[in-house]
TrEMBL record, chains A, B:
InterPro entries linked: HTH_LacI, LacI/GalR-like_sensor, Lambda_DNA-bd_dom_sf, Peripla_BP_I
Pfam families: LacI (PF00356), Peripla_BP_3 (PF13377)
Origin organism lineage: Bacteria, Bacillati, Actinomycetota, Actinomycetes, Kitasatosporales
Residues annotated as domain HTH lacI-type: 1-53
Highest rank taxon of the organism: Bacteria
Organism: Streptomyces albireticuli
Gene3D superfamilies recorded: 3.40.50.2300, lambda repressor-like DNA-binding domains
PROSITE patterns: HTH_LACI_1, HTH_LACI_2
One function term, GO molecular function aspect: transcription cis-regulatory region binding
Protein's name in the database: LacI family transcriptional regulator
Matches recorded under SMART domains: HTH_LACI (SM00354)
Keywords: DNA-binding, Transcription, Transcription regulation
Length: 329, 329
């Protein structure tokens, strides 16, 4: 507050009046104080104040899909960080529905959480602006916030997919299919961009028939995989855009007439015990959650910094399925 | 209220006074009214009244272990029922810690949830008595409540384990090991009881060295499985008490020197694609969640019935691992 007063050229009492909405300040002075506050990146942080008062903090985590095991270690890591800070964690799942995400995040705020971690389903998070202004620390994870400048922690979806597809190319594949999640999902399009970059790097054309984005419902994935594996110029390899897709592709390939190479984005339990083991581009889901939660608690501790975007590297795990050579069509 | 008034032999106004704690009622009359309320199973249901007023209901779900995929479909089913009723679901995880379970459940109540679904970690739920008396509908799932008469939805752990072990006996096994979760967990001891019953049914002795309860940490499960498979009289088959145990046992058996039969409690993703496929006693986790949630919403709708215990059947799924014959030691 001293810095704000100095910058605005007013006394501490005047700053206090503006911040607390008390009368006795001219519009011009009020504007100067507000400009100084904005310039200094200060914002009234109720959460930090509450924490200092020793009340148990609570954190709301808006998850995406409960049935996707990728999120379990992320969720658990957030919970562990919260517990280490003596805070209570409450969750809810948007089930990939933007309206539901909004409803949940606002319901958590109405229940007076001190901070929010959001795995976005929607692409417009301006609805959180009043909450953030009121002091609810907010961090986005797995996917970026839409139309809002906020902390975000991501995996390198583009780089990871590019490396995975380049791995297939290095094993002799020229016709490679890409099966991904719905096109409005940031990670789905980033991974597709990585696929296209790897194909372009190798001077390989991409046939429209080799690319399919849509829901991860097993029926759709199965249909599209079978389509790409059939016809006169079938693909010899598939890149699966996330673990839900990979698991269905594994089922399709278990009954395929010839070996088909496969690299999947995301590691998953038992991937190494299948025959062949499934080569994956692994994300560190626990580290995503831990990093986001630690960032949130720094905010709750009152650290004032511009929003930061953290991108975590992925890791290619070679197990057999991605090293199969192209089979005769 | 009419029934209460009739039974207590007083007017409606008197019942209303007692229920709302207003003065002007003699102790004797008050006792008669309260006895009538108890006899009729009536309790003041704030939740139901709130729902009728049209406010959005919220449900708290206290989960156990986020990293156990068994709970994902249960959680999701609860969420779907809640959504169908226009209610908001918030979750938290006890991580198998009784104190954390209590803290979470009470925090949800403090945040004014209308109902609670609890997967118990602890064995004494009397701490919920005041909340239940105040109108928070409560249903327990997967494990029963401790020292509290409440609705509960379970799987038939005893019957399922008995059937799974009998299946191993039917394939010629005489020395069968049981690897289960910690002994304070109801499902763990029920499944052990099922194992002992199946062995007794077949007139087979149980060596103490064949039974091991404890955490599902992979190191412990691996060590115990290797111990049972070594020595002069190794087991020829293993029964795994839940999916966390089964997954580790599958890893141990993948490098075993001779084939060992395996039946696991709980189905799990990709169990059918392993070699051999893993024979399991499957629970219907989604149905557990759905049944518990529907029970809760009946309570929230104001249905007044004595607490009910629902036990869902399990299903033996034959895939190969449980049909291997006993190998030479």
């Amino acid at each position: 507050m001293k810095d704000v007063a100095a910058r605005a050229g007013v006394g501490l009492k005047t700053v206090s009046r503006v911040v607390n909405g008390e009368p006795g300040v001219t519009p011009d002075t009020e504007r100067r104080v507000r400009d100084a506050i904005t310039a200094l990146g200060f914002r009234r942080n109720d959460s930090a104040r509450i924490l200092r008062k020793g009340r148990t903090a609570s954190i709301g985590l808006v998850l995406e899909d409960l049935a996707d095991p990728f999120y379990a270690p992320l969720n658990r890591a957030v919970e562990e960080v919260a517990r280490a800070h003596g805070a209570l964690l409450i969750n809810g799942s948007s089930a990939e529905d933007a309206e539901r995400e909004r409803e949940l995040a606002l319901a958590f705020c109405a229940r007076r959480v001190d901070g929010l971690i959001v795995i976005p389903a929607g692409s417009d998070h301006r609805y959180l602006e009043p909450e953030i202004a009121a002091g609810v620390a907010t961090v986005f994870v797995d996917r970026p916030a839409g139309l809002l400048d906020a902390d975000v922690v991501l995996s390198d979806s583009f780089g990871g997919a590019r490396e995975g597809v380049a791995h297939l190319v290095a094993h002799g594949h020229r016709r490679i299919g890409f099966l991904g999640d719905q096109p409005h999902i940031h990670t789905a399009t980033e991974r597709l961009r990585g696929y296209r970059a790897a194909m372009a790097d190798a001077g390989l054309p991409v046939d429209d028939a080799w690319v399919s984005l849509g829901t991860t419902a097993p029926e759709r994935v199965r249909r599209e995989a079978e389509r790409m594996l059939g016809g006169p110029r079938p693909v010899t390899a598939l890149f699966a855009g996330n673990n839900r897709v990979t698991v269905t592709v594994v089922r399709v390939l278990a009954t395929a007439r010839r070996p088909v190479a496969l690299v999947g984005f995301d590691d998953f339990e038992l991937a190494d015990l299948l025959s062949p083991g499934v080569t994956v581009v692994a994300q560190d889901a626990a580290r995503l959650g831990r990093t986001a939660a630690e960032r949130l608690f720094r905010r709750l501790d009152g650290v004032l910094e511009p929003p930061r975007r953290v991108e975590l590297p992925t890791r290619l795990v070679v197990r057999g399925s991605g090293e199969l050579p192209p089979a005769e069509g």
